[in-house]
Specification:
Layout (H helix, E strand, L loop, with lengths): L1 E5 L6 H14 L7 E5 L2 H11 L7 E4 H6 L10 H27 L5 H14 L4 H9 L6 H10 L2 H19 L4 H16 L6 H13 L14 H11 L1 H12 L3 H30 L3 H19 L6 H4 L6 H7 L4 E5 L6 H17 L3 E6 L15 H15 L4 E4 L3 E2 L4 H11 L9 E2 L6 E7 L7 H16 L1 E2 L4 E2 L5 E5 L4 H12 L8 H22 L2 H9 L7 H7 L11 H10 L4 H14 L10 H9 L4 H22 L4 H11 L11 E4 L8 E8 L10 E3 L2 E4 L5 H26 L2 E10 L2 H14 L21
Parallel strand pairs: 1-5, 1-6, 2-3, 2-4, 4-5, 7-8, 9-17, 12-13, 12-14, 14-17
Antiparallel strand pairs: 10-11, 15-16
The structure holds adenosine-5'-triphosphate.
Length: 794
C-alpha cells in the first residue's frame, strides 16, 4: 500500500506521519521494521524526537545516511578529499587546454616560428607548463623564467624575441636595429632581463604604445587589448631581417631548409588544430556547463579507477538486490518519507528501488508526505515539479501491481491564525503559487510589515526591530499559550547568513537580548568560511578563494590589513593591473570589485608561501574598523573560545585545523530562553508563535563565472549559451524565491513582522498590502508600516 500526503504548511503532515507510526507501535509492530527517511537531518531528528518515547528500534535516516550504512568506510572520501581530487583534475584539464589554446593562437601567418620555439622549449623541458599557461594568458610578458632559463641553456631565440619586442621599439626610435644590437642583446641581455622585474611591465607597455603610435596598422591597438599575436606581428613585420637570422643562426640551416622544417611543423600544428577543434566542440566550448560536464566525467573515471565513493555516490551505487544489502533491509515493512518535496531524482530512486525490492518478496507500506510549495532546494528540483511527477509514477506502479494507492488530503492549518493565513494567501496570489488556506485554530493573529531605506549603514531597521522585540517581550500576550511573550517565542528568519546578519546579531547582543543559538554558529558561517578561504588562498594560492574573500562583505581591506595578512616577502605571485582590467571584460564584475582586486594585487606582490601564524587573520577581523567592532562587542567570548581551539591545535596543518573547527562548532552550548535566528532554509518544518522576517538584501545579482589560477575561464559573457543559462537560472530562482517566501511566512503561528528594504520581498508584500488596504501603490513609501491588525483591512 502507498499513501501520498500532499498538503499545505502547518496542516499536520509530520503530525499525521508520527501518528501513523504511533498506531503501528501500539499494534505491536516491531520498531525495527519501520524505516523513516527524510531529506534533511533536521526533519529526521524531528521525527526521532517525537517518537523517542515509543520505540528505540525505529530507524531514522536521511536518504544519504541510510545508503551510507551499506558501504565500507575505506571507500568513502570526504568533502576535502573530493575537492582536492577535482582540483587536481581541473588543473590537468586547464594545462591541456592551455596547450591547445596556445597552439590555436599560433595558427596565423607567423605561427610556425613561434611553434618551433615552443616545441624546443617543451622538448628541453626548460619551463613548466604553468609558465607557458602564464605566457598564453598574460599577453606580451614572457615569463621571466623562460627568459632566464633559455639564456642559461643557450636557447637564445626566445630571449631574443622578447628582448627585441622591446628593443625594436627602442630601436625604432634611435635607429638601433642592426646586427650589432642583436649580438649585444645576446651577450649582455641576460642580466638585464633577469633584473627586469614585473614592476617594469607598465613601462614596457608604454614603450610599446609609443612605438605603436608610429605604425599605421597598430594605431588602434590599445593598452588593454594587446595580445601575443600583436607582439609577434610587430616583431615580424618590423624585423624581417631578424627572422632570417633566427632561421639560420641557431639551427645552422639555410633559409630554404629552415623553411621546409618549419613547414613540417606547420603540418603538425594543423593536425593539432583539428584535435583542438574537436576538443572545443566535444569537451570545452565556451559553456561553463560543458566544461563542468567534462570535469565530472574525468572525476567519475578517477573514482571508478580507484574504487572511491563520495557523498553523491552514496545514493547512486546501492544495489538493493545485492544479497548482502538485502540482508540488512529484509525486516523493513514500513517506509515513511517526510519532506519528500525536496528529494532529488537520485534520492527518489533510492526510495523507490528500496520499496520495490522489498515489495517484490514481502508486503511493504510506503507513506510519503510533502508540499511542493515548500521545495526550496532548487538544485534538487531543477527539472520541474519532481514531486508531482513521482506521484504519477507511483500511481502507475501501484496500478500495475494491483497495490492500493491512497491520497490523503489535509485541508486546514493547525498552526497559523486566520490573519496569518489570509496574509499568506494574498501575498502568494502575486507569485507563481497562489494558495487558499483555512485555519483550524481559534486564536487571533497579527501581521505588520515595515519598509526601510536600502542604505545599509542606516541603522534604523535594526533599532526598530530591537524596539519591537523589547515591546513584544514586555507587553504582548500569546493567545494560544495564554501567557506573555518570552524571548524563546521569537524566531527571526533571514535569507542568508551574511554581513548584515552579523550586524543584526551584534545589535541584538548589544541590546542585551539573549540569543538561543550561540553566536559562534553564526560567526562560523559568517567569518570562519572566509578564514577557510584565506587559508586556501594562502596555502594553495587558490584564486577562487581569493575572489570569495574579496567579494565578502565582512572584510574591508585596508592597506595595513593587507600588509599584515600578506607579510613582507619576495614576489612569487603576481597579477598585473591590465590583467585585472581584463577580468572585467570577461565577467560581470563591478568596477568597485575590480578596484579591490587591483588594490590587493599590490600587496600580493609581497607574498609568502604561507603565513605561519593565525594572529594576522584574527587581528584583521577584530581590529578592522568597520566590522571588527561588531565582532568585538558581539563575540569577544566567541573569539576567545575559537582562539583557544586554535592554540590547542597548534600550527600543524591548516586544512586539518579548519576541518576540526567545522566539527567543533557542535561543542558550543545554547541559551535556553533566547530568540532564534535562522535562515529560511533551516527553518523548514519549524514553527514559532512570533516570526520576524528580516531581509535587507537588494535584488539578487546572479554571477556565474569560473575562475582558476587567477583567470576568468568560462564563460565569456558574450556567449549566447551563457546568456541563455542565466535566463534559465533567473527563471528558476524566481520560482524558488516564491517558495522561500511561502516557507518563511508559514512558520508563524500568531504574529508576523516583516522588516525589509526595497527589494523583491517588499515588492510582493506591499503590492498585496496596497490591494488589501485599497491604497494606490504610489503611496507606498519608505517608513511605511502596515496596520497591525491585518484582517481589519479587508
Ligand atoms: N490533527 C491535529 N490536531 C492537533 N494539532 C495538530 C494536528 N495536526 C497538526 N497539528 C499541530 O499543528 C502544527 C503543525 O503540524 P505539522 O508540523 O505536522 O505540519 P506540517 O504540515 O508538517 O507543516 P510543514 O509543512 O510546515 O512542515 C504542529 O504544532 C502540530 O502539533
Amino acid at each position: 500500500m502507498i499513501t501520498w500526503v500532499d498538503a499545505s504548511a502547518g496542516s499536520g503532515k509530520t503530525y499525521n506521519l508520527v501518528q501513523e507510526i504511533k498506531k503501528l507501535i501500539l499494534k505491536k509492530v516491531h520498531g525495527e521494521s519501520i524505516l523513516c527517511l527524510s531529506f534533511s537531518n533536521a526533519a529526521a531528528n524531528e521525527m526521532k524526537d517525537r517518537l523517542r518515547a515509543y520505540s528505540d528500534k525505529i530507524r531514522f535516516y536521511t536518504v544519504h545516511s541510510f545508503c551510507n550504512t551499506f558501504y565500507d568506510d575505506s571507500q568513502l572520501i570526504n568533502e576535502i578529499e573530493s575537492e582536492n581530487l577535482i582540483k587536481r583534475i581541473i588543473n590537468d584539464v586547464l594545462q591541456e587546454q592551455a596547450w591547445f589554446d596556445l597552439i590555436y593562437l599560433l595558427l596565423d601567418e607567423w605561427a610556425s616560428l613561434l611553434s618551433h620555439i615552443i616545441m624546443i622549449v617543451k622538448q628541453d623541458n626548460i619551463v613548466t607548463l604553468n609558465d607557458l599557461c602564464d605566457f598564453v594568458w598574460n599577453p606580451i610578458e614572457f615569463p621571466d623564467s623562460v627568459i632566464c632559463d633559455l639564456n642559461k641553456g643557450g636557447n637564445l631565440e626566445l630571449k631574443l624575441l622578447n628582448a627585441n619586442s622591446i628593443n625594436s621599439i627602442e630601436g625604432s626610435n634611435d635607429n638601433n636595429t642592426n646586427d650589432d644590437s642583436y649580438s649585444d642583446i645576446n651577450d649582455h641581455g641576460t642580466s638585464e632581463n633577469s633584473n627586469d622585474s614585473s614592476s617594469n611591465i607598465a613601462d614596457k607597455y608604454n614603450r610599446l604604445d609609443a612605438h605603436n603610435s608610429g605604425v599605421n596598422s597598430y594605431d588602434r591597438v590599445s593598452k588593454q587589448n594587446i595580445t601575443p599575436e600583436h607582439v609577434f606581428n610587430i616583431i615580424m613585420t618590423k624585423d624581417g631581417e631578424l627572422r632570417k637570422k633566427l632561421y639560420s643562426k641557431k639551427w645552422g640551416m639555410n633559409h630554404i631548409q629552415s623553411r621546409e622544417w618549419l613547414d613540417n611543423y606547420f603540418i603538425q600544428i594543423k593536425e593539432k588544430s583539428d584535435e583542438y577543434n574537436e576538443y572545443q566542440v566535444n569537451l570545452k566550448s565556451n559553456s561553463i556547463g560543458q566544461f563542468i560536464n567534462h570535469i565530472k566525467l574525468l572525476y567519475r573515471a578517477e573514482k571508478d579507477k580507484n574504487k572511491l565513493v563520495d557523498f553523491n555516490d552514496l545514493i547512486k551505487n546501492v544495489n538493493f538486490a545485492d544479497y548482502n544489502v538485502l540482508q540488512k533491509i529484509i525486516p523493513i515493512k514500513y517506509i515513511f518519507v517526510d519532506e519528500a518535496q525536496d528529494l532529488s531524482q537520485g534520492q527518489w530512486d533510492v526510495v523507490l528501488n528500496l520499496y520495490k525490492e522489498i515489495q517484490s518478496s514481502n508486503k511493504c507500506t510506503l507513506y510519503i508526505v510533502g508540499d511542493e510549495k515548500q521545495s526550496i532546494y532548487s538544485s534538487n528540483t531543477f527539472d520541474g515539479p519532481l514531486f508531482t511527477k513521482m506521484k504519477r509514477n507511483l500511481q502507475n506502479y501501484a496500478k500495475t501491481y494491483g497495490l492500493q494507492f491512497e491520497v490523503k488530503k489535509l485541508h486546514a492549518s493547525y498552526r497559523s491564525s486566520d490573519d496569518i493565513l489570509h496574509f499568506v494567501d494574498t501575498v502568494m496570489s502575486y507569485t507563481n503559487y497562489p494558495t487558499k488556506h483555512i485555519s483550524n485554530v481559534n486564536f487571533r493573529g497579527k501581521v505588520q510589515c515595515k519598509l526601510f531605506d536600502d542604505n545599509r549603514v542606516d541603522s534604523k531597521i535594526f533599532t526598530d526591530m530591537i524596539k519591537k522585540i523589547r515591546d513584544l517581550v514586555n507587553e504582548y500576550y500569546l493567545f494560544e499559550q495564554g501567557k506573555y511573550v518570552e524571548f524563546k517565542d521569537i524566531l527571526i528568519l533571514i535569507k542568508k547568513r551574511n554581513n548584515s546578519t552579523f550586524r543584526l546579531l551584534s545589535e541584538i547582543q548589544n541590546a542585551g537580548i539573549p540569543i538561543n543559538e550561540h553566536p559562534f554558529y553564526i560567526m562560523y558561517d559568517c567569518i570562519v568560511e572566509s578564514l577557510i578561504n584565506i587559508a586556501k588562498f594562502a596555502l594553495f594560492k587558490d584564486s577562487t578563494a581569493l575572489i570569495a574573500i574579496l567579494k565578502n562583505g565582512y572584510f574591508k581591506w585596508s592597506y595595513e590589513d593587507l600588509e599584515m595578512l600578506f607579510c613582507e616577502q619576495e614576489n612569487i605571485f603576481n597579477l598585473n593591473e591590465d590583467y585585472c582590467i581584463n577580468l572585467g571584460n570577461y565577467s560581470d564584475m563591478s568596477d568597485e570589485f575590480l578596484a579591490k582586486v587591483i588594490e590587493l594585487n599590490k600587496y600580493i606582490k609581497r607574498w609568502v608561501s604561507y603565513p605561519k601564524n593565525i594572529i594576522p587573520f584574527f587581528s584583521q577581523i577584530v581590529f578592522n574598523d568597520n566590522y571588527g567592532k561588531y565582532l568585538m562587542k558581539l563575540g569577544y567570548n566567541s573569539i576567545l573560545a575559537f582562539w583557544e581551539i586554535v592554540n590547542d591545535f597548534g600550527e600543524e596543518s591548516w586544512l586539518e585545523f579548519f576541518d576540526y573547527v567545522r566539527k567543533s562548532k557542535k561543542m558550543v552550548n545554547h541559551h535556553n530562553n533566547g530568540i532564534r535566528i535562522k535562515t529560511v532554509h533551516s527553518s523548514k518544518g519549524l514553527e514559532s508563535p512570533i516570526v520576524i522576517i528580516f531581509d535587507d538584501s537588494k535584488y539578487d545579482n546572479i554571477q556565474d563565472v569560473l575562475y582558476d589560477s587567477g583567470k576568468v575561464i568560462f564563460p565569456h559573457k558574450q556567449s549566447i549559451k551563457y546568456q541563455n543559462a542565466l535566463k534559465k537560472r533567473k527563471h528558476i530562482s524566481e520560482y524558488e524565491y516564491d517558495r522561500l517566501l511561502y516557507v518563511a511566512i508559514t512558520r508563524s503561528k500568531e504574529q508576523l513582522y516583516i522588516y525589509t528594504v526595497k527589494n523583491k520581498l517588499s515588492d510582493i508584500i506591499f503590492k498585496a498590502y496596497a490591494k488589501e488596504s485599497n491604497i494606490a501603490s504610489q503611496e507606498i513609501n519608505l517608513g511605511l508600516e502596515l496596520t497591525k491588525d491585518y484582517k481589519k483591512l479587508s
